[in-house]
Specification:
CATH superfamily of the largest domain: P-loop containing nucleotide triphosphate hydrolases
Number of domains: 3
Structural class: alpha/beta
Order of helices and strands: EEHEEEHEHHHHHHEHEEHEEEHHHH
Number of helices: 14
Strand order of the largest sheet: 3-4-5-2-1-6
Largest sheet: 6 strands, mixed
CATH class of the largest domain: Alpha Beta
Strand content: 15-25%
CATH architecture of the largest domain: 3-Layer(aba) Sandwich
Radius of gyration: 30 Å
Length: 432
């Protein structure tokens, strides 16, 4: 079957790309242009309907089988991006017998089935398309490129070496087998297990890249929390008022710092109250505080106890701030920084400190990170098998080595499980 779809964003644009993949791709070009094109050569053609009326003038490219993204013959129509043009071209393609509209991710699925990419690369491509920050793009590119696949293939190669030793011992016992056979197998399996265990730990770092760093602003009422989140987010998301208790719920604002996705969280002012709304707001503030990667404790310069009632036990990535430096000092607190949101004093220094914390958290691991639950499950299966390698019975050891190899090879190699393929490729947009 030959499939077709619009591969660019729906709606008016300068250029739209419509792709056709399958054995009838070249026929589709001839039907719409009445031309036979040289492969991989961009050609300006009139796009004609079944009545030989011109629909548009477009750049058309034909990619022969095995030399396209999908591994099949592919036709690419680069038309103007008017909606009427796109509808007309898609309608003409629908009239060609043997063509049907593509399903979500079907082009990429075909690339996988043709051996052009493996499952890890397919997952990486999905993440690359949806990447919103520079860090997300970098990680997705490592998955889509060779870095992650090469890591898995290296583990597979080492486990296969163990299996080769075992097979040689069982089938060719009279041959010259290494004296420290068991020792070598256990050494390799231990090394691979330790590397997999460390890699599984990088899932936490990937969650930071994917979901971002949470920064909670915590303080008593009227300490300037709303003004601070408005400043840091570069927009007025929170009401600023001299009346205490204005913020009673959690407010969030998203932005990026040096390519890292960040969620700024303005919490309700924490104080003793009989008001049920304020009590619930305080409860939620404490929960956000416990989940945040960075906490900004904000107190007022004109209060004797700027953090009274707060559980202020700063962690490594927290910043203790005193606001309202323009007012008379009444406290004995030694903060990390004293600022004035009203007069914009020391705010640049605050952002510099904040960026330093963000960079530190986001840069714990600069290599490829564990990004998918499917991959994690296969790695856990492999590491559990490797953990069972002990004793001197080579036949039993062989079973565990084979199980470990199955888990690792399942990360990249072909699978016919339609449920797994559906989970991976149905997340793609139509046209990809």
């Amino acid at each position: 079957m030959t499939i077709y779809a619009l591969s660019t964003v729906q709606g008016q644009s300068g250029v739209a790309i419509i792709r056709v993949s399958g054995p009838l791709a070249e026929e589709a070009i001839f039907k719409l242009t009445h031309k036979k094109l040289k492969p991989r050569m961009a050609t300006l053609c009139k796009i004609l309907n079944s009545k030989k009326e011109a629909l548009d003038e477009a750049v058309v490219i034909f990619f022969e089988e095995k030399r396209s993204f999908t591994g099949e013959s592919v036709a690419e129509f680069q038309t103007h991006g008017g909606e009427a043009i796109i509808r007309s071209v898609l309608r003409e393609l629908s009239l060609i017998k043997g063509l049907r509209p593509a399903e979500p991710g079907e082009f990429t699925k075909q690339a996988y089935l043709s051996g052009k990419i493996n499952l890890v690369q397919a997952e990486g491509l999905g993440d690359l398309i949806s990447a919103q920050t520079e860090k997300q793009r970098q990680q997705a590119m490592m998955q889509y490129g060779d870095e992650t696949s090469n890591k898995y293939l290296a583990w597979s190669k080492e486990i296969r070496q163990c299996l080769a030793y075992i097979e040689a011992s069982i089938d060719f016992s009279d041959e010259d087998i290494p004296k420290d056979l068991l020792k070598g197998i256990k050494k390799i399996s231990k090394k691979v297990k330790e590397e997999i265990d460390l890699y599984i730990e990088t899932e936490k770092q990937n969650d930071i890249v994917k979901d971002g760093i949470k920064i909670a602003i915590i303080g008593r009422p009227n300490s300037g929390k709303s003004s601070l989140i408005n400043y840091l987010s570069n927009k007025n998301i929170s009401i600023v008022s001299s009346k205490p208790g204005t913020t009673t719920d959690i407010l969030r604002s998203e932005r990026t710092y040096d390519g890292v996705y960040v969620t700024l969280i303005d919490t309700a002012g924490q104080r003793k109250s009989r008001n049920k709304i304020e009590i619930e707001g305080t409860k939620r503030a404490k929960k956000e505080s416990s989940l945040a990667h960075i906490r900004l404790f904000l107190g007022s310069n004109n209060e004797k106890l700027p953090f009274y009632g707060l559980d202020i036990s700063p962690k490594e990535n927290d910043i203790v701030i005193i606001n309202k430096s323009d007012l008379k000092k009444k406290h004995k607190i030694r903060p990390n920084l004293t600022i004035s949101l009203k007069n914009h004093k020391k705010l640049a220094e605050l952002e510099k400190k904040l960026k330093g914390k963000i960079k530190k958290i986001a840069s714990v691991n600069t290599g490829t990170l564990l990004a998918k639950e499917r991959q994690k499950n296969h790695l856990l299966y492999a590491t559990r098998a490797l953990a069972k390698i002990s004793g001197n019975d080579l036949e039993i050891i062989s079973v565990h080595v084979r199980d470990a190899l199955l888990g690792i090879d399942s990360l990249t190699t072909e699978t016919n499980n339609e449920d797994i393929l559906g989970i991976i490729f149905n997340k793609f947009c139509i046209g990809k």
